[in-house]
Amino acid sequence: MQALEYFLIPWLDLKLLFLVAAGTFAGVYVGAIPGLSVTMAVSILIGFTFTWDVYPALCLMVGIFMGGVYGGSRTAILLNIPGAPSAIATAMDGYPLAQKGLAGEAIGLSTVMSFVGGLIGIVVLAIAAPTVSEFALVFQPRDYMLLAVLGILLVGSLSGESLVKGIFAGSVGLLIGTVGLDPLTAEERFTFGFTGLWGGISFIAVMIGMFGVSEALMQLHHVDKAAVKQKISRIVPNWSSIRRYLPLSLQTSSIGVLIGALPGTGGDIAALMAYDHAKRVTRDPEVPFGQGAKEGLVAPETANNAAVGGAFIPMLTLGIPGDAVTAIMIGALYIHGLNPGPMLMIEQPQMFWFITGALVLANIFMLIFGLTGIRIFTKIVEMPRAVLIPLILLLSIVGAYAVNNSISDVYWMLGFGVLGYFMKSYGYQLGPVILGVILSRLLDENWRRAIISEQDSIAGLFKGMLTSPLSLVLLAAVVLIFVSQTPLWRGVRGKLGLESKP
Amino acid sequence: MHGNHIRSAGELVFNAALFVISLVLLWASYGISGFSSLSSPGALPMAVAFVMAVSSGLILLDCWRKAERDRTRFLRDILPPAVIVMMLFITGYALLLVPLGFLPVSLIFLVLSILYLRRGGVVFAVSVSLLALILVYIVFRLVFTVLMPAGIVPEAEFLAAIGQIFGGGQ
């Protein structure tokens, strides 16, 4: 009963209700404008909501997250440009539908199905998270250590062109996280004699630099590209077509939740796997896949929104982020004094139920904003990049400055922006960097706890790992990722279309 | 690293720089606590820097072996003038933010960059920048209550005056 009370907090407080609505609204548009991403929006926003209470800040961020995952589908359908990585699969059949003049119908159907998927994800989160966090209490420090390594490796191997570059990017993040005075012994690490570095490098500066500035600089390559105009007719879908695709959407939602819940895999992978699943189970589609099959639209859209709920499971119960966006959400929770992990559910159950409540609310708002306001939408998406890019840069600077009112954070942010720009240009992924920064402290603490409890003996640590079933599974998973870079696995990746990802 | 056997302009230099930086960081991490113990403050940094050095070394080696250069040109495809100019603009913005204050610097930045990116249209640039700045100011300064450097603009007095108009002169 108490859970329900916490769950309803964002529903009953008008201010919080408004913030979830505003966040979702902003998320839909941010996700839809090519060049803006949810990751960028949430990282810039952390800077601004830094001084807020935790409830309002969470409402805004949950809304943006939910809306942003959905928003990416809009431009995927209308312009064949996925607004977010999780909408890549949506474009495969969504854009052909738009070319046939069925853009309105495609948007309507994808909105309703995103809602269905989102809801299923949240229900699974509400049921699974308390169990997982109870289970997580038996986790040893070495298990957390392995989980952190696993998360970085997964993000590095699944999202980039090569595992080595992913590992390098993850290590850069881990190293950035260790700069400053050691939390246990106050010894200086990588400070090079500057007292200004004692407090470490603000991870918000790193985030905004990598996802705000570097993305904006990347966009400068396409500054002259004009937006394409599209006419949109009816948008609310028929009940009959919703009923028709509901069974498929339930299957793909479960895929979405599962993939989302794995550390290191998020909505983009979930959507591609769901698309593949739909292709296999649909015997005779009305229209072939790739030419505007509605099944090919329903599957990724349900899966990527279901993955949001799924991704919150490891994030809230273990403190392990699933991808760059959840890594930034964890950063936001840290800033507001919360410590995601199994103790969060025990010490602050209200926080968990509050977030669940806000997620459901954001999902409802997503449905409302998705089915309305299409006219404003087309106007906003046509906003010229020559105006958009300077604005992103401006907001990035303001956001980085706002956290500590410190100009040196702005310089760090710019430095990481330029580094991120070159890394992106040469095929390095930035997701693992952020994951590394966030997981650095967790990895450092748990490594030291694990090795101290074994009296500094590596052999003892390995013996512990090999004799505990849980550690063994995690260790096997870490090893498997290295093996997964063999040609056999590459064939599977090619089949899923992961190789062609931009 | 698979499939793609062509390297872009500047890739080799960038990868080499990352490798050298990794080595420097490895040396710096050794300086934290050396090989004193596995649970020392320097243990993880050293392990991580080692992984960085090895992985960047592998990347560099792979890049070195790619004999063929693709047709990208550094100043056209990797770092085109627009990117350099905008990098300079934001650096200038960051440098002038504290001495001049948020409002004037932001306005100058927006007008200049919109002018540059659109190549012309002063009226458009100025009006869009003003509009955007007013929106940003209302949302972030007044709603999010972010404190920005006031610089040469008497912002506090200005806000107080507005407050007096609406707040009945208290």
UniProtKB/TrEMBL annotation, chain A:
The keyword Cell membrane does not apply. It comes from the Bacteria. The chain crosses the membrane at residues 16-48, 54-72, 106-132, 144-160, 192-213, 312-335, 351-374, 386-404, 410-439, 460-483. The keyword Membrane applies. InterPro entries: DUF112_TM (IPR002823). Residues 17-435 form the DUF112 domain. It holds the Pfam family TctA. Keywords: Membrane, Transmembrane, Transmembrane helix. Coiled coil: none annotated. This is C4-dicarboxylate ABC transporter permease.
